[in-house]
């Protein structure tokens, strides 16, 4: 059993799949976490920056960054879903096909 | 079926008679009342329809697995957009501007994490609850007991907070007494879940999400219309009338100390990672066919939830401009009904009794849908994780055991309904604001670490998960109790034993460190087996191979 599974984990198709997933998941997760905690840390350590006017009007840098973070969440999920559908799904299909041939 | 119909009639009779005797509030509630009754009749009709289609455990827990990604995304956003977040965040923006926005963002940022780390492997490995995934290669009994404890703690605190809020909102909006409001909500949620299971709960959630999104869109549109769709013009008008002036455009605390910085980071962690550990949200991923649909669900859910928080932000600022200095909405210098009512007052200011009635009914629909989703998650933890594993010993494949498990989940639903209504009545006069924070903290400190590491960390063992997960659960509860929100605000002590309102930073660290330490120190034969079993699990979690067979169970 374990011998058989070792072979699946070492299949080039399976390795390509996990690599492709890692390549997109890690950077996007780091961007999301870093962006959010960067804003939290700015609130704690540099609230004055957030209070400055964005372009001379009433809208502050803080409000713009906050709304920007909401859009970042849209963008991150959009990028991942489009990449997963285009790149990861064919790799899953290829890995499944190869594993099916082994069994 | 006759039995079912009589139950339905009794409940309608009960709810109307319990409510009719109490005096009406100051405003005219007839529009809200009619719309609300339409909602109740439609949702009970759906429950009746769903009850006839709910025959197996798969129907009951996962709506048969036939929900589409788009529907599920909308249902997830329905589960997540509670009346507390609609009315509460609008109220928070009204009082503090920017700080309210930050709070709303905290509830959104968990969603990319759910998408990137949780949704697809969860769907590929699990069946009905997240404990299915956590116990995939670990020992069933201890892991399910732990996961069910985490789920139930999260669900009960969340449920009490929602019910107490519901009672107060209904009391204010419709003029019924707090107790009859809570009992009425409790009866309806129990009916939806007991008879209609996940199918009814999902459709109630879908209708509510559409109503809430359209209602909030309408108010935000009418607000922006006043300012020629210029955010800057709206902010300028708001700063002009707000008591705190331009300070609402930035953090109100301009000189934060180390304690408040740590508290803010800690709250951020609870919100971000707690989202990925909420049992009623995780359960929704089992209602779709496969990982592709699970992925699509989160994409739509993130879109709807983010859009909704932008709307509440606009509503909050609109309320600053339109309600401040408007004597119609103030009594003795205070906003009537408290700041949680700003969205409701704003609806009245913008669209008169008609919009007020619509938004009130939407708020009520929101409450009902959210508590129903929570109740279903709680009863699944009892019937699927505890009863089916401990009493039926996991032999649920037989038709007889499926029936037993279904009966157990219905009894659990009724028991949860009764317990949560009683607790909501007990907690009427208490400050329950900490309970949602506590629910997120437990979800982030117990459910999330176990789930994440069981899916991705090869060296995890049962011992590590049980010891670390329990430490996370206990430390989250304990640190909240000795912190300012319970020790001072609820128990009225002079000073809290720790200064942090949200302890997720500490309890999550304890959980992850505990799981890591007790896993790597575990040299038992079981531990070795569990590590070896990771490969098969990993292949399934990456590819979805085997998911079809599991779904047929």
Low-pLDDT windows of residues of chain A: none
How many beta strands in the DSSP annotation of chain A? Answer: 0
Strand content of chain A: under 5%
Please give the radius of gyration of chain B in angstroms: 23 Å
User: How much of the residues of chain B is beta strand, in percent?
Assistant: under 5%
Describe the sheet with the most strands of chain B. 2 strands, antiparallel
Oligomer: heterodimer
Can you offer a commentary on this structure?
The complex is a heterodimer of chains A (103) and B (553). Helices cover 87% and strands 0% of the residues of chain A. Chain A has 4 helices and no strands. The longest helix of chain A has 42 residues, at 61-102. The radius of gyration of chain A is 21 Å and the shape is elongated. Helix content of chain B is 77%, strand content 1%. Chain B has 23 helices and 2 strands. Chain B has helices spanning 2-20, 30-53, 57-62, 69-80, 83-96, 98-108, 110-125, 130-134, 140-174, 178-226, 231-241, 258-275, 279-282, 291-323, 342-391, 399-426, 433-456, 462-481, 484-488, 504-520, 525-532, 534-543, 547-552, and strands at residues 330-331, 334-335. Chain B has a two-stranded antiparallel ribbon. In chain B, strand 1 (330-331) and strand 2 form a beta hairpin. In chain B, helix 1 (2-20) crosses helix 10, helix 6 runs antiparallel to helix 14 and helix 10 crosses helix 16. The relative contact order of chain B is 0.16. The chains are: A mainly alpha (103), B mainly alpha (553).
Question: Brief overview, please?
Answer:
With 103 residues, chain A is mainly alpha-helical. Chain A contains four helices and no strands.
